[in-house]
Amino acid sequence: MNRIEGRVKVTGLATYAAEYPVENVTYAFPVQSQIAKGRVRHVDAQAALAMPGVLTVLSGEDPPPLASGAGELALFQSREVAYRGQIVAAVVADTYENARAAAAVVRVDYDPDDHDVSLRADHPGLYKPDHVNPAYPTDTEKGDIEAGLARAAAVVDVTYETPVLHNNPMEPHAALASWDDEGRLLVYDTAQGTTLSRNTLAKVFGLPKERVRVVSRHVGGGFGSKGTTRPQAVLAAMAARAVGRPVKLVLTRQQMYDVTGYRTPTIQRLRIGADAEGRLTALEHVAYEQTSTLEEFAEQTATPTRIMYAAPALRTAHRLVRLDVATPSWMRAPGECPGMYALESALDELAYALGMDPVELRIVNEPETEPDRGLPFSSRNLVGCLREGAHRFGWEQRDPAPGVRREGEWLIGTGVAASTYPARRSPSKARAVVQDDGDVLVQVAAADIGTGARTALTRIAAEALGLAPERVHVELGDSDLPEAPVAGGSMGTASWGSAVVRACEELKSDGREGTADTTEEVQGDAAFSRHAFGAQFAEVRVSSVTGEVRVSRLLGVFAAGRIVDAKLARSQFIGGMTMGMGMGLMEETLTDEEFGGFLRRDLAQYHVPACADVLDVEAVWLDERDSELNPMASKGIGEIGIVGTAAAIGNAVYHATGHRVRELPITPGKILMF
Amino acid sequence: MEITLQVNGRPRTVDVDPRMSLLDLLRERLGLIGAKKGCDHGQCGACTVLIDGRRALSCLALGVAVDGSEVTTVEGLADGDELHPLQAAFIEHDAFQCGYCTPGQLCSAAGMLGEPGPSAVTEDLLVDPGLTPEEIRERMSGNLCRCGAYVNIVTAISEVAR
């Protein structure tokens, strides 16, 4: 189905956060810390206040009161600097130009301390967090790893590294905040969930939830970075309170790198043993990652290893270190994405060590039940995805020998990797009501960040009601609507859709209106291991002259329950795979070891795939039936597309060149080093 | 400074701060939010508009520098209720997800359709290559799409270019 909001998006009428017409608006511009650790001694705003149009300068000199005083959102509440780029002051002025010019002359003096911004696997500050995101055990262990390795016919013991990655949605994080005469706060925010954003702002400002409203009708991508409320929303609201006028705050692309989250770098050691038939005898995955001194963020990197393959000895562990850096946050498939990159690359190495086909190696190790907890899978069609993909891709004709296919300067290779992502759902509310014209209005505080949620929910409601989609109107993106979880964790459609279906069912029996709250229903979900699976196949051409890697073909085959809408689903899958290609070949933020903070803070230096990079990307899916999920029988598809892509590409680069790159991204320099 | 420009066929006279980009002028002064600010540095293409018929990055043009120019934004592509063929093709082929890069993609594609000559990937410089998928990919690479809709963007533009 074509996107419902397609017409407003192609005609430029869709309103994103900073685009609502508001009378008497003013503009805020942040000032960022120039040191990575220490204290703000003094903020001198005199020169800035004397500039044209400047209304106020906010800083820790006279901290605007907040009810909640810790973490990334506690702006100006402490003089301590936790990372370079942290917001230490902000100017509010009548125009953007005036605010920005004045921000440049705010003088901040610091008492700097020595900083530590480098993640290392032998860092003395490594510790074991209580749990990893969202609530998984930090470590798991069953069987005897050392014994398993000792009796293996082949062993790989390898370390893979992934860099700092930035979500980089096209729409910068922005907020437009105003307070009305009765002290109610309205924020147009770039939020992946207006309920969560409203609750967070209410807590930060010490307001009852009813006095805060967050609106995010259209969101220009998020990929996790707009899942938690970001400082721009707090700062805009704080500034609006200070000047008594609406305040618009749009972060610059550079500022986004500092204060809107990023994927933690990872160092991952894998030890895998297998017998001569390829059956795993031991599988160990240990991930080292960073967090900040402000908040703990523990990425669940090794968790996919707990569910992927049968192994009598299975150990996973996570270790964190608190560095003088911004707090990492969600980026598309946190955990699964970096974790599966390492696992699926290491498995390819094992396949070579055994002299076995990598597709068959995965199939041989298919588990009967979830290896970690022993739970039955609600459905699991990894083998089907591998077989279907191998058939479509022409895998049967593949010569496994690395580094032997050449066309002129180009070396050619193919690679495979599995992908997976949990199929969860969260409690949600929804309302459906018959309007005067007989059409049905469906309300839910869902978010459409480009996933097609508006369209998918329309289809779901229309199906539940037995109406044509044209007669259903979905309203979302507003915290005044029935409360709903964020667009994240690939559970938006599953969560909101469950509530929408229940509300529509009630409407059908009531004749006029239906409301739903799925809290009890979700709590009653039976104990199953619920995951989507997939297989990714890549063909690469590697220039022996320049080291350039071109991905000539990328095929993803997925098993993700019932697909709600084929057109939207294909776009989600290939979009994730395209981002995975970026992860494999080009995306990398450097950490500035000397001064702290990040380098490559723009799109000229942090490369994301451009049109010319994306040749033949295709996604298909199996017809998977699973009645243990939700009323739609669907699994989330927003994230699985990125999982495994980088490994498939890396494995193809090995097949093409005979050289294994174990540090992403696979840039020309790393190819030419061989 | 007071300047006058034609925006989507209408004369607009504005008193602008000389530091103001054309992009901010459109968005903050004229209420035309179609052109998007993605990077403000000419790196992403979300702000692409047509200036005197040629595609240009409105974040890299100062408002005062386009005094007297004709500017077409995405709001000006359709003919009344009749969508531009590119707009219709983008909807039909799902050539966008979040929609934030879309106005820039559309203006860029509209400009590209009228651009003669070879590109960096043209093999024979003396023969018009036509807008093959490879040529479209090359010529549209100034417009980033983080949702990864490129495959569909190329399909949509190809349909209109035929």
Automatic annotation (TrEMBL), chain A:
The keyword NADP does not apply. This is Xanthine dehydrogenase. Keywords: Molybdenum, Oxidoreductase. Coiled coil: none annotated. It holds the Pfam family MoCoBD_1. One of its GO terms (molecular function) is iron ion binding. Residues 11-114 form the Aldehyde oxidase/xanthine dehydrogenase a/b hammerhead domain.
UniProtKB/TrEMBL annotation, chain B:
PANTHER family: OXIDOREDUCTASE WITH IRON-SULFUR SUBUNIT, OXIDOREDUCTASE, IRON-SULPHUR BINDING SUBUNIT-RELATED-RELATED. The lineage of its organism: Bacteria, Bacillati, Actinomycetota, Actinomycetes, Streptosporangiales. The keyword Iron applies. Keywords: 2Fe-2S, Iron, Iron-sulfur, Metal-binding, Oxidoreductase. The keyword Acetylation does not apply. SUPFAM superfamilies: 2Fe-2S ferredoxin-like, CO dehydrogenase ISP C-domain like. Pathway: Alkaloid degradation; nicotine degradation. GO terms for molecular function: 2 iron, 2 sulfur cluster binding; metal ion binding; oxidoreductase activity, acting on the aldehyde or oxo group of donors. This is (2Fe-2S)-binding protein. Residues 1-77 form the 2Fe-2S ferredoxin-type domain. It comes from Nonomuraea aridisoli. Gene3D superfamilies: 3.10.20.30, [2Fe-2S]-binding domain. InterPro entries: 2Fe-2S-bd, 2Fe-2S-bd_dom_sf, 2Fe-2S_ferredoxin-like_sf, 2Fe-2S_ferredoxin-type, 2Fe2S_fd_BS, Aldehyde_Oxdr_Iron-Sulfur, Beta-grasp_dom_sf.
